[in-house]
Amino acid sequence: MSDPTDEFSFLPEQAAEAGIDGPTPRGERLTLALPDGRTLSALRYATADAPDAAPVVTFLHGAGLNAHTWDTTILALGLPALAIDLPGHGDSSWRDDIAYIARVLAPDVAAGIEAWTDRPQLLVGQSLGGLTAAAVAASRPDLVRELVIIDITPGVDPNAGPTQIRDFFAGPVDWASRDELVDRALAFGLGGGTRRKAERGVYFNSRVRPDGRVEWKHHFAHLANAASASPAAAAQASAQQDAVGSVLGESGWEDLAAVSASTTLLRGDRGYVTDADAAEFVRRVPEASVVVVPSGHNVQEEIPTELGERLRTLAGAS
């Protein structure tokens, strides 16, 4: 696969694959300097008929992904949108303290929404992005008009479905070519189902170093590799995860309880949220809506058109 002319050159191809007609939106890469010297990066999409309109929907991706995971969903949405690279992912800076948890990520996301939008957002987050979205909505209600959490609850077992993703990223930290990464993704049953989709995903999620080697952009792959290289380190990391899991889970429930915006949990029928998780969500957040869709965990990649249309309705568009 040859490198494209720019990171938005795939949009017409993605629209054609999804059967989405009409002009493609104009994409723009944004960068925000944070007070501690790190940077936050995002993608802003403007519709052809309103090129200067500010975003009305903001998207937060899951762990190990990046803002481009929402491309086809945004094409189907047909509204001005913002997709943020979470810290440690995409073109946003890594955190030296490796604290990739919702309440730590939320202030950076809030700063981005404040800088790049001009009104309360329909805030949509998947997986880690969903928990982060809840933390943003709880701490900055002025920024969030409505909240949509995709296939995650604070009670999801991190040792269930996500294990496959951790194993996938726990390989070498660098590769000879992007083709090797594509082969690995397909071998793990990842990548969107076709080699072309896997190539796009790998392109957006990797970079070529000055020495010509290819590495994943996100910090998680490097952390997973370090753990897999040392059984003792892996055991220690697992023990730490178990020790803090209940605390972090409870903080997530506290965030959801503090959200004043209308909230929807959208779960895949083959996703990570079990019936028991969903029942606990309903018990803890009784005023929220729960919707089940035919998808696995990455709803935005498996049924992006349906998701975009649902979000368009929630955003109040006809």
From TrEMBL:
UniProt keyword Heme present: no
Keywords from the UniProt entry: Hydrolase
One MF annotation (Gene Ontology) recorded for this entry: hydrolase activity
Every AB hydrolase-1 domain range: 59-305
Keyword Hydrolase included in the entry's annotation: yes
Name of the protein in its database record: Alpha/beta hydrolase
